[in-house]
Amino acid sequence: MVFAAPGEALARAEELLGADPSPLHASVAHQVIGIWQRDFGDTRRALAHLRRARELAARADSAEREADVLATLGVALVHAGRTRDGLAAFERGVARGTGHTRARVLYRRAYVWWVLGRHGEALEDVRRAVPVLRQADDVIWTARALTLRATVHLALGAVERADADFTAAEALWDTTGQEHDKADAVESRGLAAFRSGDVPAALRLLDEAEERYAKLGTPTFMLSIRRCEVLMAAGLATEALAEADGAIAALDGIGGQSTRKAELLLVAARAARLAGDPQTSLARAALAVRLFAGQRRTWYETHARLVLIEARVATGRASGRLVADAAAVAERLAAFGAPAAPEASLLAGRIALGLGWTADAERHLAVAARSRHGGPPLARMTGWAAQALRARAAGSARGVLEACRRGLDVLDDHRMTLGASELRARATAQGAELAALAQRASLVSGGPRRLLVWSERWRATVLSAPPTRPPADPVLLSTMTAFRELAARAEEARTDGGRPAPALEREQRRLEREIRSRTLHMRGEGRGDGDGGRFDVGRLLDRLGDELRLVELAVLDGRVHVLLCGQGRVRRFEAGLLAEAEREAEHVQAGLRRLAHPGAEARLPLVEAAGARLQELLLGPAAAHLGNGPVVVVPPGRLHRVPWALLPVLRDRVLSVSPSASSWLRAKDTAPPPGGRRVLVRGPGLASGGAEVPELADRHAGPPPPARSGESPRRVTGARSGGAGPLDGRPVLLEGDEASVPRVLRELDGAALAHIAAHGAFRADSPLFSSLRMADGPLIVHDFERLDRSPYRIILSCCDTARLASVGADELLGLVTALLPLGTAGVVACSAPVNDAAVVPLMLALHKGLDAGLSLAEALRDARAALPGDAVHQATGWAFSAFGAA
């Protein structure tokens, strides 16, 4: 019962002990309490109860009972870090038990061998136990043994064998009432899905297991370890670190298992390294090494040493000693049959290359490169990274590019199994080294065109295909509705009382976690189409013609390289350092924030001077070769907050921004929807009241056309000519209570033009919860992803709507990038806080240009020129950018 209903089993055992039982029955009760404390409570109390259980078994003169208790005691001692004593207890238990009891003891010793990382011994003991358990028709213990054998197979990379055992075990569990064991089986299936490369399925199964454990009221430390592994593979290292550290604190709080603490420290060390925090990684890894060594867990200790070496390299401590240490770790991991062995060989080769030890590097990299032909995606990528480094050391640019292409193809296929745009974006971080190697090789050997191709190969790849649409999941839909209502109530409480409402905000965060969790479960709809790999420079140059220039900024080794495309050629110029440009961009953003308020006019010359410095850092000598025509800027993700219209050479131009040249070409080829419907939305709480919206509606006054079939007449409706010429017809106007999220989404779907005047909120911590405030609560990025087709053109006339989070290799998450893959060809949005009143004339002038048949970029250029010359209006104009090509 302790694994079917743990709480009830504990209560029954304590009740039995209060009734003066016989020594035999008291032994069982103390063993049950010991198991509960061992797995869910205080290890010291567990050991005390289990020793008492053994004494009572001896007093009852039951060798079988004593053997069973010795096995439970052995597990507890190993988990407490007393490995020698634990194995000795097992020796006595195997000697005392016979038949069926002895098979159960062997199963538990196999579990301990797995904990210790001694997989050969684990498989041997399970091999001996399973036939006896089956012969005894012991369904529960047979299922446990099969689950354990599958888990050991996974640790050795034998995924197919693991799947077979998990399937057999699950069939047995379905015939029992062992709820804890059933939850453990779901958790194990999640681990198997992860090992086979199916991250969404792994996340879904681990979440299901957590729900099952929660109903039983049992802690989930092993589940946390496994979820951290999946989160790291999904590019969510910061979340993995937070979960691991939280689990360590909870484990320490109950005096829990020392073995679990060491494992949590190991995953925390890996997560910190991936999150760019090498000092934390060093500290966690060093403590994990000490604990594993004391527990005699060589398999785990070796993995912890690998992370320790990686952290030392990340802090700049590369040395010949570290090459030897990494090589020794690689040899030990290979001897264990651990899938991480190629990773250690790659590390040794990379350190050796950095030291100029080419012969040593070649030896280690050749070993690592063997993994490129088989195994899960990340293992193959490790192999291709090693192959690329080998080619670079041999001076073969062609070999570097081929290895990088093959490695990135593997990652492309892996990314397309992920349905959530966030996971696709974050997964690209695993290809950053390959992309950088290819760009360097292109710079040396291929000229500007090849550098452009490789810059495009790994830029904004998440926008190359629409994200998987969220499923028609009633639970997800109701959770999103509840989230919206709660967020509105929390905002109302802050507005009315000036104070936050902690209870509402806690529930809001809980609902956010549930929404995000369900969206991360979505699986992709197919393999990558290789669009980024087939980027055609000739086609781009044809579309640009003689007047238009596209400026793509590539960053190599911290320096900005300007790829200037136009007039049938690609030219390269070197500009400044990326770090300096980022600092200057932050100064400009601070200046624009101040200029949004009257009285800051004295700062205007300072902001303009900062714009000139940005131009020198970002464009360098290329600024003199832009010609007189329109310009498209394609910046790297880390420069997404630059107000490009502030740069002197771009200030009076038709200017648009795009995440990639490929994205610009797709936008250029996107046809407007039929019918030309326009939608105007005015959200609550704007200082200006969204004054441009009713005026824009009045410009196109006229009798509304008939309502759609099955609908009551809309308040106002309209049509437009399709985007190529002047807009006409009366638009849909949504304001007040009509500006609710469901209604707004219904009208936005397939619209030709949407103008939304609403408060924008950017969430750096969770960019897909960035929002626009509607009458019934926030309209978030996840809502936009439910559209069949987002508006062809969309204007977001509020603060911070163009703010984005830079994630992965060179990806951006936020409102603008959510719209571009869904059918939107052009967006006007704002990257800084702006003065609401000053936005009104800018928007009216922008629409005047659109009515005259101009593109968004052309209309925005003319609208800026029409603004008053004071600092507030000038800053407002600079803060807005046109994205895309519509």
UniProtKB/TrEMBL annotation:
Protein name per UniProt: CHAT domain-containing protein
Domain CHAT: 609-880
InterPro entries: CHAT_dom, TPR-like_helical_dom_sf, TPR_rpt
Key words, A-Z: Coiled coil
Coiled-coil spans in chain: 46-73
Domain of life from the UniProt record: Bacteria
Bias kind Low complexity: ranges: 676-685
Source species of the chain: Streptomyces rochei (Streptomyces parvullus)
Region (Disordered) residue spans: 490-509, 661-733
